[in-house]
Design a protein that fits this description.
alpha/beta, TIM Barrel, 5-stranded parallel β-sheet, 4-stranded mixed β-sheet
């Protein structure tokens, strides 16, 4: 068996993809009804400090990952984007203002992804190859988005989760990377576990906070060992920030999903970084030896 990197206890030699969706707490889709975009500029911002803390966490575990960054954030914090790139991480696009693809026209979407990619490349000085839709909002009716991403110069998207969910998901989509846009773009779904014919999210976000850490470790190991595939994991800077402001007028469901176990996320990430090997999306899926 191949030797694994030092400080990683898992038996799997597979390198998984670690990703961060760089957005602030007030920019999540679930807050749209309570916080209008016109308010964003005046709200307390916490994304810079939280992301810097994440960069320190990555450095302490010798992990490199992919940061899907909003154009809105990059425009206001260009030094943060440069810090991410200079630390050896991949800079990728999360769109401009966290607008769900299934609410955009093709023309508006094209303008959004072109504008965001241009800014991120200008600020980071690096090519931007990856894109992640706000709230994984490329659905069965938005396959046109893959064509437009390929035209705009992106090489991969990580914009779907093959599960049933009230906000997103294509339950019948492949669980693992597949070609789109006539082979011009690779779609890389968030990791799921197949149980009794149904897919369960095990790739991060609220699911990582909902289930005990032991479940996440077990599920990701199954993806590596049984499926023989790299896992794709994601989280947000606000998920390590239990002291973030709490807007009024949020539904009970939204409050539960957003604030559940925020105080446990950082320590769980420390365990995750120790138990598995992690790398950037482009290195795992696009380089020689990867899929692409």
């Amino acid at each position: 068996m191949m030797a694994v990197a030092e400080n990683h206890s898992t038996e799997s030699a597979i390198i998984n993809a670690m990703t961060v969706d760089v957005e602030d707490y007030f920019q999540v889709s679930a807050f749209e009804a309570a916080i209008d975009k016109s308010q964003w500029q005046s709200l307390p911002r916490r994304v810079e400090d939280n992301t810097l803390r994440i960069l320190d966490l990555f450095a302490s575990h010798n992990v490199r990952g992919t940061f899907f960054i909003l154009g809105w954030i990059a425009e206001r914090y260009p030094s943060l984007v440069r810090r991410i790139a200079e630390s050896g991480h991949e800079v990728a696009s999360h769109g401009w203002e966290h607008i769900r693809v299934n609410t955009q026209t093709p023309d508006a979407f094209r303008a959004d992804v072109v504008r965001t990619r241009a800014l991120l490349q200008d600020v980071s000085g690096m090519p931007v190859l990856g894109y992640r839709a706000a709230s994984y909002s490329i659905g069965e009716s938005e396959s046109w988005a893959w064509e437009l991403l390929a035209e705009a110069g992106y090489r991969y998207s990580s914009s779907i989760v093959p599960i049933r969910h009230d906000l997103y998901g294509i339950p019948d989509a492949p669980r693992f990377p597949f070609d789109t846009a006539s082979g011009g773009l690779l779609e890389i779904p968030i990791s799921t576990l197949s149980v009794a014919g149904r897919n369960i999210n095990c790739g991060g976000g609220g699911w990582f906070r909902l289930f005990p850490y032991a479940f996440s470790k077990w599920a990701l190991m199954r993806v590596n060992r049984i499926d023989g595939q790299p896992s794709i994991f994601y989280f947000h800077p606000w998920e390590i920030d239990p002291e973030q402001p709490r807007p009024d007028d949020l539904s009970l469901k939204t409050r539960f999903r957003h604030y559940l176990n925020l105080g446990k996320t950082y320590s769980r990430l420390q365990r995750l970084f120790t138990d598995f090997r992690w790398g950037r999306m482009d290195e795992v899926f696009l380089t020689e030896g990867g899929r692409g």
